[in-house]
Automatic annotation (TrEMBL):
<dbReference type="InterPro" id="IPR004360">
    <property type="entry name" value="Glyas_Fos-R_dOase_dom"/>
</dbReference>
<protein>
    <recommendedName>
        <fullName>VOC domain-containing protein</fullName>
    </recommendedName>
</protein>
<dbReference type="InterPro" id="IPR029068">
    <property type="entry name" value="Glyas_Bleomycin-R_OHBP_Dase"/>
</dbReference>
<dbReference type="Pfam" id="PF00903">
    <property type="entry name" value="Glyoxalase"/>
</dbReference>
<dbReference type="InterPro" id="IPR037523">
    <property type="entry name" value="VOC_core"/>
</dbReference>
<feature type="domain" description="VOC">
    <location>
        <begin position="10"/>
        <end position="143"/>
    </location>
</feature>
């Protein structure tokens, strides 16, 4: 099932609820996600993540549609008051991580919603996070060269 937009075969589909599908579509489009109209309708919008992560598909569902896919009797988590998951995306370098964070903030997201000092440092990672319009937390990270390990960790004291 390759995307008509790119010919890319997604290998992972992340399905998330949204309170406002039009706002969510505008937000993720501003971040450079590639819309897949063939897999979208009035209640669902599908995207491929930006390079180098095009094998991941994000499917945003209006809350009423998302509820039809969940376990009977369960409720949809409010991402602003509970943690349902952390979505981490690998980028090639620090500049790409920071650029994506700026895009998220420019589209209405919240940059570095919380800071965990030195997070990832012991693994040689540079990591930042942002919150989308529905409160879902996303992390962008890259692996740093060993000689830069002392500079790794979350830089988010903006």
């Amino acid at each position: 099932m390759s995307s008509p937009a790119t010919g890319t075969n997604p290998t992972f589909f992340l399905n998330l609820p949204t309170a406002s599908l039009p706002r969510a579509v505008a937000f993720y489009t501003a971040l450079g996600f590639t819309p897949v109209p063939a897999w979208s309708d009035h209640s669902t919008a599908t995207f491929l993540l930006p390079a180098p992560n095009q094998t991941i598909s994000l499917m945003l569902h209006a809350n009423d549609r998302f509820a039809r896919f969940t376990r009977p009797g369960s409720s949809i988590a409010d991402a602003r008051t509970s943690t349902q998951g952390l979505f981490s995306i690998l980028w090639n370098d620090r500049e790409a991580v920071d650029k994506w964070l700026e895009k998220a903030e420019g589209a209405g997201g919240k940059k570095d919603p919380y800071v965990m000092e030195g997070f990832g440092k012991e693994m040689g990672m540079y990591t930042r996070s942002w919150e989308d319009l529905d409160g879902h937390i996303w992390e962008g990270f890259c692996m740093l060269a060993k000689d830069l390990e002392g500079e790794a960790g979350q830089a988010g004291k903006a």
